Amino acid sequence: MVCGADALVWTLAEELANSRHRIRLTVITPHRIRPDVPDLKLLESRGVELRQADRLDERAFREAGLSGATALALVMPDDMVNLHAALCAREVEEKLRVVVRMFNTGLGGSVSRIFPDYVVLSDAQMAAPAFVAAALGEVAPTHFRHDGRTLYVAHRGDVADRDVLTTLATETAGEVAVLPVEPDPGAAEADDLVLAEATGRPPGEDVTRRLLSRAGRRRHPLTAFGRALRAALNRKLGVAVVITLITTVLAGAVLNAWDGTEHDLWESIYVTLMTAVGSSDVEEQRNAIAQAAQLVLTIAGLALLPLITAAVVDGMVNARLALSQGRPSGPLHDHIVLVGLGNVGTQALRQLHDLGVRVVAIDQNADARGVKSAQKRGIPVIVGDASQEETLQAASIATCRALVVLSTNDPVNLQAALHARAIRQDLRVVLRLFDDDFAQRIESAFQINTSRSVSRLCAPVFAAALLERNVHASIPVGRHAILVGTVTVQPQSELDGAPLSEVDQASLAKVIAMSASSDEWMDWRPDPRRVLAAGDQILVAARQRGLRALAERSRGQG
User: Which among 511, 521, 463, 466 is positioned nearest to 487, based on CA atoms?
Assistant: First the structure.
């Protein structure tokens, strides 16, 4: 049984309906769901039963036939609704595998400790690294632990050959091949994406260092001072101050040149400043040019002091307003503009901040989930419509390094991306869209760097958890998700007695390691000629359909 109200419920139901397992699937949704969710009635032809309930309580679960069910997925977009539904479901069916979607990872960890049989997953936490990596043009420092070892994702050129366990993806002529045949040592490219073992250093250290070095470029102190000065002055006041200063300098130069007295540099400065502040006396014996210069200089001095006072006050007021409203106090450079502070946007914001990248956030709602998180980190937030060009201009879109659009409104996302491209053609744009096929077509038609569907990235992990597949990690590669999981060979299964080499299937699954039923240790570089036996466990990196096929081949005939 699957319960949800947004894009994830459709994608997860589709994943399960396409499974080769003989699954009796029931989907429960509220009467009103997000308008961008496809018509779930399209799944009825595949045997999916559809029900509607605005409240997920014991009565709703009993009426939907939860008694006797083997698994329940609660993927509503509200943590409290999911938690309440999980507690109600236990009253209806005790022997139930429950997979719960939660944004609050702290609450999710507590739920997992109290109810060890619950599987708590965060789609935002799974999807955010893919958007962060795309924004930076790099690999996100993804890592996980298994059997006492730390494994992490990196480019082949960043790790020693002895630490590489398997190749996850290669790129040739712009085409990405996922889980390819392992290349020969001489043919391997430095940009190949690999799964490596961390030995003697923190996982992902090389990748993280490179991200930080690119994100946090050193700035000259004078450059920073100039930007602060420009931010403090509004344009009209700044022009007035500059004109007055130029007039003062020119009049002082003329006065000292035509005064009839030779002055050194200090004396020239002294005479100019004293005259400018009104401390000069009438000098009738001076020639007409010197007298005119003295007059202009005195008048300019009278204007200069109030202008300087006004500039200081205006700068302080602007800075305080910007600080209180959380908006940028002036133009920014080499930053990332992030649109949308919902679940995924908030996770991406935190990760970018942790990597030391400057961020400006935009959201239409001043009470969005991530606004407080941004303010806590000192990240400026612009409350406005990102589909409007003036909002993007306020975020200094012309001088940023990338635009990441993660709101849940596809038309707004697309419009913001196109406006940004109109302002700057070479801008890196990372776009979130619901439909994966639409995302791919948009990426090709409008030369968007990356467009992805969050539900498509995360649904395979939720489906695997529901079907009791032992999944340890999800690795985003482009638009795809590679799952790292364990397959156990059961007696009289197709894999029982087969060589390990039959598990490897290009673009579907690759063996990382295996553990024999009689061994307590894991072989991280097993011989492909090794014959499998019942009880053997195989650690694989696989696509969703590849892991599904392996699970079926490992299942016993009884």
Answer: 511
What are the structure tokens assigned to 432, written together?
A: 């979130």
CA distance 432 to 386: 14
Which amino acid is residue 404, in one-letter code? V
Predicted model pTM: 0.64
pLDDT value, residue 20: 61
Q: Consecutive 10-residue runs of the chain (558 residues): their mean pLDDT?
A: 93 84 88 86 91 95 93 94 93 90 83 80 82 76 73 86 90 82 82 82 45 46 49 57 72 64 59 56 55 61 65 58 51 89 90 85 91 89 90 91 89 89 89 76 73 80 79 77 89 94 92 86 90 93 88 81
Residues 6 or more apart whose CB falls under 8 angstroms from that of 509 comprise: 179, 503, 540, 541, 542, 543, 546, 547, 549, 550
CA distance 26 to 536: 34
Tokens linked to 232: 């403090």
Q: State the Cα angle at 190 between 185 and 192, rounded to 5°.
A: 85
Three-state DSSP at 203 gives coil
Give the DSSP letter string of 470-529. EEEEEEEETTEEEEEEEEEPPTTSTTTT-BGGGT-BTTTEEEEEEE-TT-SS-BSS--TT
Two tokens at 524? Answer: 């991280």
Count the Cβ atoms, other than its own, within 10 Å of residue 280: 17
Structure tokens at 8: 């994830």
3-state secondary structure 134-154: HHHCCCCCCEEEECCEEEEEE
State whether the Cα torsion 399-401-404-410 is positive or negative.
Answer: positive
- Cβ within 8 Å of residue 161, ≥6 positions away: 185
Angle between helices 7-17 and 454-466 (to 10 degrees): 50
Give exposure, 17-32, as e/b (b: 16+ Cβ within 10 Å): bebeeeeebbbbbeee
For CA atoms 536, 537, 542, 547, give the dihedral sign. Answer: positive
Helix (H, G, I), strand (E, B) or coil at 4: strand
